[in-house]
UniProtKB/TrEMBL annotation:
Active site: 242 (nucleophile), 279 (proton donor)
Family: Belongs to the glycosyl hydrolase 13 family.
Keyword Cytoplasm appears in the UniProt entry: yes
EC numbers, comma separated: 3.2.1.141
Organism taxonomic ancestry: Bacteria, Bacillati, Actinomycetota, Actinomycetes, Propionibacteriales
Source organism: Aeromicrobium flavum
Protein name: Malto-oligosyltrehalose trehalohydrolase
Pfam hit, one: Alpha-amylase
């Protein structure tokens, strides 16, 4: 087989294959090649210059020895797929479920997660969003400290394990969204800069990529090839792109627009829909505007503003970035137009922020709505869920807004049964100095926000991972079953009545009390009424679903079956 690696500034590169070292030859574009007979399962690594330190392949698919060890030759054709008839799953009309393989089950593997997929089918989920599964240093972590973007984390089950998971999802009618991180690399095992000019500065989380400087064409190709590999070789249906606002890219053709065009071509070639979902802090509609309309062509983006408005309305918390969302009309405004900050003053940022969404142009499916996600739980000092702060009736009220509103709804694992387990920040870096730096940095960060350092869980303690793992036995308890029944019923209503999943923002009407104590969404012939305070909202017509603080009714009883 031919081993290849891009190292344009080096004068010598060797490849070590099963212990034997072979000189490589360089071409005009800075790629080095060597033909060495080696079957799948062979370990290999690269030696740069005259240094005998072996480094893994930047484009590795398999890292059985961790991010510092040798790569292993992987044969994609050797896996037997059973999803040949899978038609794909589009985002429009879907309900998304975010999960983390390492804490979704006590088994912490893809195979263990497969055993719980039927629960998601029964709930009414369409797309399973999996937090990053690329290789990172250590065994446990959120996945955002990955350094080998194409290699599947070995403790989860490696590349074959992820393929089994995707195949099992497709067999049950579930699409798969994979969370990928292109805005930075983790602090341990990031060797890319030894091979070539991959890095250009740093952001809040680590080294960023050289997307617009000299020799950046090949760096951008590194990202594009990685994205297409997940679609082509692992059969995923969508990518969730982490923190795209941190991509430093000044080119006339931005990387995201290029990624959108390439994804569209790959979807045509594969004959199934492929989706790109961005996380962006810019509140810029151009992110999700089609390329033909001078946008970046992302299919959707996360909507943190809606989360913040809901969270403040439920809990009354107004510290940090929640401050502006204490406005009585914050929730109603955000429901109508996706962004609360649409050119308005942001006290957290100390400046105006955002741009209005043209509700005539963009549908609600271009924005993901959620009551909880990994960031909004895990980046709280103690990782406490909303169910730890508000009574079940209020959680059900918020769930109705998310699941019956105009946006693409997303549920975070365990939310559907009001799981009592927190979801805390954790990592497992073997380097003791790095581990201590992360531990003390986390505690100091929250100490500045008024938390006692002793209250912040130790992210390096294995007990933190244990606490954050879902306890599936809770489904046998009445209170948890009742919340699960609420989520099932709401999703079933959404399925049964198209008006309750209508993505038209221009047709959405929202009534709200002057003090924000109640809210009613008009969804065609249906009304979704939610009470946050003491005053009850007006409810008319036949009631299809009702709890203490939420009711779904229709103004045309005879038309509903």
């Amino acid at each position: 087989m031919t081993y290849a690696v891009w190292a344009p500034k080096l004068e010598r590169v060797r490849v070590q294959v099963d212990g034997d070292v072979h000189e490589m030859r360089r071409d005009a574009s800075g790629w080095w090649h060597a033909d060495v007979e080696a079957p799948a399962g062979t370990d290999y690594a690269f030696l740069l210059g005259d240094d005998d330190t072996s480094l893994p392949d930047p484009r590795s698919t398999w890292q059985p020895h961790g991010v510092h060890g040798a790569s292993r030759v992987y044969d994609h054709a050797a896996f037997t797929w059973t999803d040949q008839d899978w038609p794909g799953r589009s985002l429009a009309g879907s309900v998304v479920y975010e999960l983390h393989i390492g804490t979704f089950t006590a088994g912490r593997t893809f195979d263990a997660a497969i055993e719980r997929l039927d629960h998601l089918v029964d709930l009414g989920i369409d797309l399973v969003e999996v937090m990053p599964v690329n290789s990172f240093d250590g065994t446990a972590g959120w996945g955002y400290d990955g350094v080998l973007w194409g290699a599947v984390h070995e403790p989860y089950g490696g590349p074959d394990g992820f393929k089994r998971f995707v195949d099992a999802c497709h067999a049950r009618g579930l699409g798969v969204v994979l969370d990928v991180v292109y805005n930075h690399l983790g602090p341990s095992g990031a060797y890319l800069d030894r091979f070539g000019p991959y890095f250009a500065g740093e952001n809040d989380w680590g080294p960023g990529l050289n997307l617009d400087g000299p020799q950046s064409d090949e760096v951008r190709r590194y990202v594009l090839d990685n994205a297409m590999a997940w679609f082509e070789h692992f059969h995923v249906d969508a990518l969730r792109l982490d923190a795209v606002h941190a991509l430093a890219d000044t080119r006339a053709l931005p990387l995201l627009e290029e990624l959108s065009a390439e994804t569209e071509r790959t979807a045509d070639a594969l004959g199934r829909p492929l989706t790109l979902i961005a996380e962006s802090d810019l509140n810029d509609p151009r992110t999700v505007r089609p390329r033909a309309s001078h946008g970046l062509g992302m299919d959707a983006q996360w909507s943190d503003d809606l989360h913040h408005a809901l969270h403040v309305r439920l809990t009354g918390e107004t510290h940090g970035y929640y401050a502006d969302f204490a406005a009585p009309d914050a929730l109603a405004k955000t429901l109508r137009g996706a962004f609360f900050h649409d050119g308005t003053w942001s006290s957290f940022r100390g400046r105006t922020h955002g741009r209005p969404v043209d509700v005539e142009e963009l549908p609600g499916t271009a924005f993901l709505a959620y009551l909880q996600n990994h960031d909004q739980i895990g980046n709280r000092a103690t990782g406490d869920r909303i169910s730890a702060s508000v009574p079940p009736a209020l959680q059900a009220c918020a769930a109705a807004i998310v699941l019956l509103g105009p946006y693409t709804p997303m549920v975070f694992m365990g939310e559907e049964w009001a799981a009592s387990t927190p979801w805390q920040f954790f990592a497992s870096f073997p380097d003791p100095e790095l581990a201590e730096a992360v531990r003390t940095g986390r505690r100091r960060e929250f100490g500045r926000h008024g938390w006692g350092e002793s209250e912040v869980p130790d992210p390096m303690d294995p007990a933190t991972v244990e606490r954050s793992t879902l306890d599936w036995s809770e489904l046998a308890e009445a209170a948890h079953r009742e919340m699960l029944d609420v989520y099932r019923a709401l999703i079933a209503l959404r399925r049964r009545h198209p008006e309750l999943s209508d993505p038209s923002l221009s047709d959405l009407e929202v009534e709200s009390a002057a003090d924000g104590s109640w809210l009613v969404m008009h969804r065609g012939r249906f009304r979704v009424a939610c009470r946050f305070g003491d005053e009850a909202p007006p409810v008319h017509g036949e009631v299809l679903f009702a709890l203490e603080r939420v009711a779904v009714s229709t103004t045309e009883p005879s038309a509903v079956r």
